[in-house]
Design goal:
By secondary structure, the chain is mostly helical. Helix content is 74%, strand content 0%. The chain contains 7 helices and no strands. α4 packs antiparallel against α5. The longest helix has 32 residues. The structure holds protoporphyrin IX containing FE. Protoporphyrin IX containing FE binds next to α3, α4, α5, α6 and α7. It holds the Pfam family DUF2306.
Length: 176
């Protein structure tokens, strides 16, 4: 049975954007002074492949899957939805996101030797992804759309943005 898309409730849309805004403000407060200080001495350069090669394989897998996930996610957003191309690209994106979130469970550092707050996003991702796929298979398209968009925004903007904070590995790979 074909589903009728329901309207997105303004309150939940507002809550989503409030979360993104809060993360952006927290990031700016946390990293703002460092970014300004480092911007004066750092410059963008080709990726430091020697530094990348020196990382544990789980971090290498995490970075490659995450970057591919962000790139493919951007393409999927611009594709027509529901056809074979969307479904194939969507499955590849889902696998990339599972690898990104799954591999992150084996990475620690920000919070010493234990999981940090970002691992909450990993857990949320690993639970939400199967639920979003299930919704699509049941033709609950609006639920599927909102869950996938939320995962992409959360992954690409929040976890991705935070990965480029000065001092973290992505920063050192490109600006260090
Ligand atoms: C563009 C996207 C992403 C990039 C480039 C990226 C990159 C990285 C890198 C390089 C690390 C190693 C630690 C360090 O930075 O020093 C890391 C750690 C981590 N990433 Fe990502 N990541 C991305 C997306 C994600 C996503 C989508 C998730 C979750 C669903 C995630 C969860 C984590 C977690 C939990 C850690 C461990 C943090 C800790 O040390 O406690 N990342 N990421």
């Amino acid at each position: 049975m074909a589903a009728t898309p329901s309207r997105i409730r303004p309150a939940s849309r507002l809550a989503g954007w409030a979360l993104v805004a809060a993360a952006a403000i927290a990031l700016a407060l946390y990293a703002g002074p460092q970014i300004i200080a480092l911007a004066k001495t750092s410059r963008l350069h080709a990726p430091d492949l020697a530094l990348f090669a020196a990382q544990p394989w789980v971090i290498q897998v995490h970075i490659l899957a995450a970057l591919a996930m962000v790139a493919l996610g951007g393409i999927i957003l611009s594709l027509r939805k529901g056809d074979r191309l969307h479904r194939t690209a969507g499955w590849i994106w889902t696998i990339l996101m599972m690898i990104t979130a799954g591999s992150s469970l084996f990475i620690v550092g920000i919070n010493g030797d234990v999981w940090s707050l970002i691992h909450l996003l990993s857990g949320w991702t690993l639970v939400s992804l199967p639920a979003a796929i299930y919704a699509a298979r049941k033709h609950r398209i609006e639920i599927h759309r909102r869950a996938m968009t939320g995962l992409f925004v959360g992954g690409a903007l929040i976890a991705g943005g935070f990965a480029f904070v000065p001092g973290r590995l992505m920063w050192r790979l490109l600006f260090g």
